[in-house]
């Protein structure tokens, strides 16, 4: 009688099977923690809306005649041209301060307790990105509503708005990860202030957020092509237009997603540096 042999795949440990769900559960719990903190201090969310609203309402009226300048290709309404730029400016400025939550956790000893617990490092990072993205989405809805009341009409419809929100969320995730990495490495609020001033203002003005780059110096348009903030502005503006270029939208969304993944990985590795120097 010949022996019958059977092949079986190696057993997967229960812990390994549960690992993805553990990370997801940790992410949800930590995101809820951040949201509860924001609910206790709603003024923070409102203050982040204040400056974009001022820019939207004042710039939208002060420069409404820009559309009449020969060579302007942004359409017949400056408010409609401006709105996607304001949304991305709000996302960028808010995400630049994301590391503040880490600084506060370090000062209170919460970060050390989290890192000595079984809490997933990836969940610690991703939860802050999700939280910041949720804030960006909520604030974007408000900005779009105000723009609509001001007379702006967007031909992209609901699908265009969803693509705008996706672009804003990816921009938020990328720069929130960068802010978190700076917080973990420097452990100082002043570094975040410097990062905010050093990055956000040049990125905003070296883009088409406020003005069609065809009307700017040639080098500005060249630099804008490599500017992640400009990628998000292009996504939002194309998505809200009546006849969007699907290829342009997808390419720039892909660039933003790739940047977000890379910076999230770098920021997660910064936990190791933080632990080695504590």
What's the short version?
The chain has 278 residues and is mainly alpha-helical.
Structure commentary:
With 278 residues, the chain is mainly alpha-helical. Helix 3 runs antiparallel to helix 6 and helix 6 packs across helix 7. The longest helix is centred in the last third of the chain and has 31 residues. The N terminus is likely disordered.
Please describe the structure with a list of short key phrases separated by commas or semicolons.
278 residues, 0% strand, 11 helices, elongated, single chain, mainly alpha
Which helices and strands appear, and what pairs or packs with what?
Layout lengths: L13 H27 L1 H21 L15 H18 L4 H9 L1 H6 L5 H29 L7 H30 L2 H17 L12 H7 L3 H13 L5 H31 L2
Shape summary: elongated
Percentage of residues assigned to helices: over 70%
Structural class: mainly alpha
Largest sheet: none
Q: What's the overall average pLDDT, rounded?
A: 88
Separation, N- and C-terminal Cα atoms: 67 Å
Succession of helices and strands: HHHHHHHHHHH
How many strand units? 0
Low-pLDDT residue spans: 1-17
* Individual helix count: 11
From the alpha carbons, calculate the radius of gyration and give it in angstroms: 22 Å
Q: Estimate what percentage of residues fall within beta strands.
A: under 5%
């Amino acid at each position: 009688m010949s022996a019958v042999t059977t092949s079986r795949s190696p057993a997967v440990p229960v812990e390994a099977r549960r690992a993805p769900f553990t990370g997801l559960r940790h992410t949800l719990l930590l995101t809820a923690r951040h949201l509860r903190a924001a609910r206790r201090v709603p003024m923070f969310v409102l203050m982040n809306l204040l400056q974009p609203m001022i820019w939207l309402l004042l710039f939208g009226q002060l420069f409404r005649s820009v559309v009449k300048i020969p060579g302007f290709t942004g359409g017949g309404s400056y408010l409609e041209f401006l709105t996607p730029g304001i949304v991305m400016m709000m996302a960028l400025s808010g995400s630049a301060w994301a590391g503040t939550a880490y600084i506060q956790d370090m000062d209170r000893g919460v970060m050390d307790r989290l890192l000595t617990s079984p809490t997933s490092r990836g969940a610690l990072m991703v939860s802050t990105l999700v939280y910041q993205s949720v804030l960006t989405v909520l604030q974007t809805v408000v900005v779009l509503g105000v723009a609509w009341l001001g007379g702006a009409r967007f031909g992209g419809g609901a699908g265009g708005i969803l693509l705008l929100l996706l672009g804003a969320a990816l921009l938020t995730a990328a720069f929130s990860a960068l802010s978190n990495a700076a917080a973990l490495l420097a452990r100082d609020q002043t570094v975040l202030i410097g990062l905010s001033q050093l990055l956000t203002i040049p990125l905003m003005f070296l883009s088409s957020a406020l003005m069609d780059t065809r009307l700017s110096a040639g080098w500005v348009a060249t630099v804008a092509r490599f500017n992640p903030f400009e990628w998000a502005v292009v996504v939002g503006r194309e998505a809200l237009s009546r006849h969007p270029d699907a290829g342009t939208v997808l390419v720039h969304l892909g660039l933003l997603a790739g940047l977000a993944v890379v910076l999230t990985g770098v920021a997660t590795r910064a936990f190791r540096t933080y632990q080695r120097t504590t």
